[in-house]
Amino acid sequence: MRQFNNRIWVGLRLLGLAAGLLAARPAGAQSAAAPAFAVVPLGVRGGLDESNLSAYLVAPAGSAAYVCLDAGSLRTGLEKALASRALAGPGPEAVLRQQVCAYLLSHAHLDHVAGLLLNAPDDSSKPIYGLASCLKTLQNDYFNWRAWPNFGNGGAAPALGKYQLLPLAPGPALGIPGTALRVRAFPLSHGPGYESAAFLLQSGPDYLLYLGDTGADELEHSQHLRTLWQAVAPLVQAGQLRGIFLETSYPNEQPETQLFGHLTPRRLWQELGTLGQLAGPEALRRVPLIITHRKPPANQEAAIARQLAAGNTLGMKLVYPVQGQRLGL
């Protein structure tokens, strides 16, 4: 009996020790144990392959109420996601109509909106969010009955009103109807005189940062990225930022006069070095970095990956999303 009681006592001591260790884990380590966001990439590339262009579904973990970050490719990505069981539903049309609750468009270049345009006839009514400059292009240059029917809620008559174009201004976060997400927008510079956007998504205490196409501040003669880093640095320090989606379109060999408002591995690490200075490199190391918008051909994509790895002095975890394969962040 005494031996049995001793075993119970030892077991309780071990349980107490384990509980103490769990309680002592830093906030960043705790958050890494259970994903806060589900991400389904519908398209990951930055050009040429029209079936695999920038588009990412995001929802709080356990939810099927998604927002779509950019919409370069939709149907092919939905088909692949259903085939891999990253999504559940009777078919791509049903998922698009019932589970995609809103679009967040970083800018209106075709490689970020073509999927939305082509699938608009079969889509359900929902909001499209973006900076005013992006929505103006979408309404006036695409939804105008010349390039495409007017599925928007303004512009050339008759406006079909399927989509409600809702401008986001830099400022407080806004709730996205039909989802448990909130969003805050930040302007970015994507070449001379052209505006792109970053979106900071919030689900409870957790955040996810998605950047559309952007050039480096130094080359863009801008402070947009520094302003963004200053805003998210406290979230990095608190272990609340679950991931950063950041483009790397070209390898380092691309002449900087021909980047057209994009990043190379060298320029990406330069920018994230600024964030590391603001938030602390140890805190930033815990944040996964999801690499987006690599431009084909395949040897160029491979060169970008090699150069990113070689320049990763911050020790960040690099994630290369695959079309149709779910990510937990």
Automatic annotation (TrEMBL):
Keywords for this protein: cAMP, Hydrolase, Signal
Any Pfam family the entry gives: PDEase_II
UniProt-listed Gene3D superfamilies: Ribonuclease Z/Hydroxyacylglutathione hydrolase-like
Gene Ontology biological process terms, A to Z: cAMP catabolic process; negative regulation of glucose mediated signaling pathway
Spans traversing the lipid bilayer: none
InterPro entries listed in its UniProt record: Pdiesterase2, RibonucZ/Hydroxyglut_hydro
Keyword match Hydrolase: yes
Nucleotidyltransferase listed as a keyword: no
GO molecular function list: 3',5'-cyclic-AMP phosphodiesterase activity; 3',5'-cyclic-GMP phosphodiesterase activity
Stretches assigned to coiled coil: none
Signal peptide: 1-29
Family: Belongs to the cyclic nucleotide phosphodiesterase class-II family.
Protein name per the record: 3',5'-cyclic-nucleotide phosphodiesterase
Organism: Hymenobacter polaris
